[in-house]
Amino acid sequence: MIITSVAQASRFSLKNEQVDTTDFSITSPVSLNVYPAKLNNGSGPGRIYINAMRIGGVPITLPLLFDTGSAGVTLDALKIFPPELVDEHGFKFKKGQDTLTYKGIVVTRTTVQKVYGSAGAVETKEFGNIGFATLMVGDQTGALNLRKMPVMFFYAKSTNGKESTNGLGSVFGVNTTFNTVTGVNERTTFNLVSPLKYLNYRNGLIPGFKLSALQLFGCAIKIPGSCRPSRSLTVGLTNADFQKYRFNQLTPQATAQTGQVSGHFPTYPELPLYHPEIAAAIATESQQIPVSVLLDSGNPGVVLNASSEDLHADQYPIIKLMLPFGQTYFYNQRRANFSTRFNPSSKRSVFGIYFFTVFGFAEDYQNGRIGLNRTAN
Question: Which of 34, 84, 229, 276 has the fewest beta carbons closer than 10 A?
Answer without folding.
Answer: 84
